[in-house]
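Annual report, structural modelling task.

Input specification for the heme C complex:
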Amino acid sequence: MGKSKGLQPVIVALAFIIATILAALPAFRPDDVPVFLLMVGRFHPLVLHFPIVLVVLALVAELVRWKGWLKQADAIMVVLLSAAAVTTLISVMAGFLLFASGEYAGLLMDRHFLAGAITGAAVFLALGFFLLFRKNPRFYPLYLACLITGNAAMAWTGHLGGSITHGEGYLTEYLPFLVKGSPSDAPRSEEEMLVFEDMIAPVLDAKCASCHNAERAKGRFRTTSLNELMAGGESGKSGIVAGDTSQSEVYQRVILPPGHSDRMPPEGKTPMTADEIALLAHWIQKGADPALRIAEVRQDGAIGSVVESLLPDLARYRRKAAVAKLRAEELRKELEVLATKLDVIVEPDTMADGDTYLLAMKFPPAPFTNDQFRELAPYSDVFSRASLVSSGIDDAGLYYISRMTNLRILYLQKTKVDGSGLIHLQKLPNLEVLNLSFTKVDDKAALDLLNFPALKTVYLHGTNTSPEVVEALRKYKPRLDIRMEEGPYL
Ligand code: HEC
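The model returned the following structure:
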């Protein structure tokens, strides 16, 4: 006992020092954190559950202690508060490192970080004041205030954190419909309703599009438009062949038996119902005609009753589709704000077939550097084209570009890139065109191009590459088109 008495002032002092550090943490912009530490950040979503439980438990225990229902109450409180403090500290530090990785940014992130730091500081203060309170009852109100503040701040932190991972408005996603009534697009009259657009597409949107959309096209396949559906994906098989279900990969995949590894959607996701599949088959057999009206099919014997039974589900799917549209609209607005802030051009990429964006410099280019890239990091997968000509990006900045997994075209001419960071770009599965003209890219860096999975065209005019290496590249990667010209800018 004597020993722990001597330790107590030290713990109190330590608790107050850590509380001060945590409270000051949001003032620091994490920068240049060693990469191995960034990995620790990945544990944040895992460890944060411990403080959530312990901080709440401490408040509950305090209530019980205060009522006098707890034996050994003080010892239990010390243990609980200490555990809450330590796990909060670990969560905040892991969160700080995750933040430092640049994977998350923006206003929500700033607030989440601030709230987390407040939580941490409050919990440590609660521990410190509780220890003081055991000696002097005057400290009770301070201790209680900190404990309650810690709980409130934690609830706020958790809410903001949830908004970051699930998207802002995760909890209120369906609220607009309570307020605004039904989706904005005026529904077609029953007479005009179309089989594909009004019945099949909403089902695919609800059950397939989460994996097969512009940002995330599993199997390089998208279900978000009729053209993309027909085209199919990486297998090279057509998604839909008019009049022939046996050649239509979409149909073939959904009729596979449960447990089959190729079945769509994969195990664990809501499969298409028998009625939905029957309608899909009927529509394909009738020529996969987008103009086929529901009214025509409704009279049609067996399939007519399928349509009847599907109609009630339709409203639900349509609502879901409208929510997705609302999200896309929100994204567009956020990108607009960001573009103004960074003084760059962000607009829909008209050359791409999905809902992706183009990132370009204004002329004359703003001093766009690696730091600005970090701000774009949370949106990295919406870009399919980036023109960074004459910008301040260098090889370290290519790390951020390597997050732009949907990038197809990248223009880096006249930048400080010397090629040492090209290796990051090998991770880009869709990068087809790369312009490195008028950079210091040398032979060694040029050889890294051999490992680019999708590269079709590269511009190397005005670089430090030798004709011999260019020759070698042409030999080992004959399908790569190496151009010794400056190339386009946009
Ligand atoms: C949970 C994610 C997920 C969902 C949901 C999903 N898929 Fe897939 N899909 C994949 C993955 C992963 C692949 C690539 C591997 C493969 O070919 O099996 C794929 C591949 C495909 C392909 C093959 C593309 C090609 O040509 O290689 C088709 C067709 C397809 N999906 C159709 C669908 C349909 C139709 C639905 C909805 C009923 C659906 N998927 C729902 C993950 C998903």
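Residues 456 and 480 are 5 Å apart (CA to CA).
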